[in-house]
Prior knowledge:
Blueprint: H1 38-48, E1 52-57, E2 60-61, H2 63-66, H3 83-92, E3 101-105, E4 110-115, H4 118-126, E5 137-139, E6 144-149, E7 157-159, E8 164-167, E9 172-175, E10 179-181, E11 187-190, E12 192-193, E13 199-200, E14 203-204, E15 208-209, H5 212-227, E16 235-240, E17 250-255, H6 258-265, H7 272-285, H8 290-303, H9 308-320
Parallel strand pairs: 6-15
Antiparallel strand pairs: 1-2, 1-3, 3-9, 4-6, 4-8, 5-6, 5-12, 7-8, 10-11, 13-14, 16-17
Helix pairs in contact: 1-3, 5-7, 6-7, 6-8, 7-8, 7-9, 8-9
Amino acid sequence: MPARVRPGDNRNAARVEPSDPVGKPAGSPNLSKGHMNVLGEAALDYLSAGLHLLALTGKKPNGRIHGESWSWEDSFHGEPLTAEEIQSIYGAFSEERGTTGIAILIPPNFYVADVDTDAAADLLLELGFEAHDDSVVAQTKNGLHIWFYAPGADRNRWAGGRTLLFKGLGGYVVAPPSLHYAADGTVDGAYTWGPNPLVVGGVLFMPDVIPAGAAERFAADDQFAATAPEKEQMSYFNMVPDAGPWYLWKVEPVYAMEGLEKAIINAAEGNQNNVIHWAAMTAREEGVPYDVAMTRLEAAAIKGGHPRTRARDTIKGAYKRAPRG
């Protein structure tokens, strides 16, 4: 798969005390190579950088280590300082305990874009991402995990409906050098970092700042969530009385789009286009015909002081995109 943004613990968990997450302090125990393993070494490096980890079996938390559930508080975290603490990490992240991979719990103020389809890659580029040598990218079996710094990020976010997932606080990503398994249980690959890993020598590298287009899209979603009324069925049918018998009266669809129109009219300066795009995508998925959506959303955009031509282009583009889902 090309490397250019294009895909082809619970209370039973071991815990180590936190410390300054910048490298290993002088005098740290130096274990011999015979005691080390690849996953254990990587886990120690991530922990030294201040990250929270889970031991995985496949893509799921290792039940022998974490029990039936896990949490941020009860994950592995804090830099191991003593020989005993270090050895416990090697033990947990070993084949003997059934561990095949490492999960990094995504910290506050970070997103990881899960780019596993061409549509997701296209959308990320559309949102303003430009790949370069310093981008923090992990190669997965079917795509890429691209790390971003995003002040205020505190949860998962979707862009383009369900096209592109930005994983945030509360979620985790499988990290190198974890193994990837096929459906039959055989190893068919491994997760690897691109030229610029997230952690080098126990120091966390700052990734790219979240693309401006993504930040604006999230702001539009938040604004609509704050101003829109409770979600109701957007389309229903109304019977139009006529001179003949009632069972011959004409039945016409009615589209309740007032919430979308209100969001567009009240959209903040500089964020209107994102709100219009969101509203058009929502209308499309609710079955609102293109001509109805164009008429009503365009009128709302004009009422909100947004240029007619740009609003029309945005609505038209939303109806041309592949369905979200």
